[in-house]
Amino acid sequence: MEHVLSQKARAKENGGLTRRMASLLVPLETTDPLLYHGEIVWRNGEAISDVRAGSYGHTLGGGVGLTMLQSKKTGELINKDYIQNGEWEVEIASQKYPCQISLAPLYDPKNLRIKV
């Protein structure tokens, strides 16, 4: 527990983390790209991570997964700006598909559906 608390304190001092878990969505189009695990995640043409867990999100209408993002550049923080300023793709069966990356849960992040 102390290790996690020290990481949190260090992140607060530095303005963020260099490694973060993120959600991934591959919107459904004419093809049905499904995620399982191990698919490569690309940011601005550079392989940056892989899908750790994947499935199909019926409420989101596409393949969903979790990935651990870690910056390739020393000291670069994984934050909202890092996500928004990147062009994201995921490689499924040797083909790249555009995807969305989010640090918040993709479905009902504020639990509004639960409170109805």
How would you summarize what this structure contains?
The chain is of the alpha+beta class and 116 residues long. The chain has helices spanning 2-14, 80-84; strands at residues 19-27, 40-43, 46-57, 62-70, 88-92, 95-98, 100-102. The protein has a single domain, classed as Beta Barrel (Elongation Factor Tu (Ef-tu), domain 3), CATH 2.40.30.
What does this structure look like?
It is a single chain. The chain has 116 residues and is of the alpha+beta class. The protein has a single domain (16-102), classed as Aminomethyltransferase beta-barrel domains (Elongation Factor Tu (Ef-tu), domain 3). Helix content is 16%, strand content 40%. The chain contains two helices and seven strands, in the order αββββαβββ. The chain has helices at residues 2-14, 80-84; strands at residues 19-27, 40-43, 46-57, 62-70, 88-92, 95-98, 100-102. Strands 6-5-2-3-4-1-7 form a seven-stranded antiparallel beta sheet, with no helix packed on it. Strand 3 (46-57) and strand 4 (62-70) form a beta hairpin.
